[in-house]
Amino acid sequence: MTDGRVLHAGLHVLDRQMRDRHGRLCGKVDDLELERNEETGAMYVTAVLSGPGHLLYRTGRRRIGTWLAKLTSHIERSSLEDPGRIPYDRIKSVGVTVDLAIEANELATFAAERWTRDHIVGHVPGSRHDADE
Amino acid sequence: MRMSDLMACDVYAADGRCLGRVRDVRLVMDGPVRGSLAALRVDALIVGGSAFAGRLGYLRGGVRGPILLSALMHRLEARAITIEAGDITHWDVDERRLITAARAIQRGDPDR
Amino acid sequence: MKRVLGIFLGILTAIGGFVDMGDLVANAAVGARFDMNLAWVVVVGVVGIVVYAEMSGRVAAICGRPVFDLVRERLGPRFGLANLVASFAINLLTLTAEIAGVAIALSLVSSVNYLLLVPFVMVLVWLVVWRLSFAMMERIFGLLGLCLLVFVVTVWRIGPDWSQLWSDASSPVIPSDENVFSYAYYAIALFGAAMTPYEVFFFSSGAVEDGWTVKDLNENRANVFIGFPLGGLLSLAIMACAFLVLAPADIGVDTLSQVALPVTVTVGKLGLAIALIGIFAATFGAALETSLSAGYTVAQYLGWPWGKRLRPVEASRFHVVILMALVVALLIAISGVDPVKVTEYSIVLSAAALPLTYFPILVIANDPAYMGDEHTNGRIFNMIASVYLVILVVVSIVTIPLMIITRAGS
Known about the structure:
The complex is a heterotrimer. By secondary structure, chain B is of the alpha+beta class. Chain B contains three helices and nine strands, in the order αβββββααββββ. In chain B, a hairpin with a 4-residue loop joins β1 and β2 (18-28). Chain B starts with a helix and ends in a 5-residue tail after the last strand. In chain C, α4 (67-110) runs antiparallel to α15 and α7 packs across α11.
């Protein structure tokens, strides 16, 4: 789709809710990665960055942010090299939410969710069922 | 480089005058198609003015009311200028300095 | 026909669910101390919550996004975080007050010290959040809350001079034994009790939980435009009871039992029993709402999956935050702090924090990109909403100084 849409980073992209390919909530757009094409001089958005480390980096805590992002940079069974970095080609659409073509559990933001589920919530009776009625 | 790095930069005119900080970045979806979408190209920088007012959407997002807020936000954003990405001569993001050669500096944002 | 029944039930639920610990304490305390001279504040507060709730319900129904999601988006991560911290802390205080309220209501029935009942209440609240469906939860406690109508019955039974009552309320004065500062302070407390922020977090998240769409907008408006004002009438009835019974006897409101005293005196034991059921339902319902709000605010700021409509394993962090909030509330309540004082602080600080969440909603309600061209605020609605924004900002600015000057209302 080369529709020539105009977006503003701060207004339309950053801090937007992301959904995975099944529509599940999977974090927010915390930052964007930019790369400059040396031949044409044009600068493009190459990835969405999401995760507590990236959010901290963006709000000014650069060193802690980078360290935290590295900490959560390995997830098994993820198709992403860096689960905090979603390459641009995995984005399906940008609108009221940013919809992704991948699964929520491939993302770094999901690691904490999975840990909480496996170590705390999953052990409580009734956690796997819908609430009654 | 990250968007947050870019939005922490100050922009200077060729004569050394500081024009303000990058408050927002205009992106256009007209690059080569990557996956499902055309690549988002950095088209222009919104410099100066209030980041807060800009983010609320009164100027570039089409938010229309209420009248009082609208007027207040336009006032706050009045000093914002748009600089085309192509006019930036020096991208010294590590030093947080961008230098533009643009002579005709447009006020406001032409989109809306 | 089914639709009408649904709307009717919705309105009843809104009426019964309107009052919480803050309203109980504030309206009774003010009625006992200031007679009906602050009744107008309840009216102003009710109009405010109607405007606020209608906007957040409409925003949630049309773009499926609840308040805190939008707070971060419009205010940015830094202001949004400050907003989150403040809202979460005040919410926690409110949760503590509500849990204490439930425990006190139960202690009045069982003659067990309320402090011993607090842990029991906390577990009960958690169980309901964990297992009872959203719709069931709203319905049951909302409808049981209608028992508070016994306060209206009480006023009727006392049979006051209605024209006198009306003229007292409509031409307010500052009582001779009070000063303008304490008057203003209690006005803010009443206002914060009527326009509670958690109500809006819950309301807008609830709209998403219930899957509201454009088709439900009219039902939303019925609940809000009819239900809330009638709920406000319940608040005024509580105030009138305190004015008619407690004020002449020079009884102040320091405990929850004094709130129900006028009912006991006028209608007897049966009246008290009904009042206690109503108080239990109101505070328990509010405890459910504030504990869910603790989860909603954090999860929506960070983009986590959230909601009762998901199985707990699908929203684990959300449920852990709720549990942690309940534990902290338990610890504060059990430390023996005066629950009425905690309630007062929570409503006064709520009033001060209102602009933080009201402002982004007002902006989004005017954004055609989110609302579609037909559902942005109309011109008149916007005027009223703007007036309230100014009121909220003024209230916000004067609250802390007033708290200091009046030494929190003493």
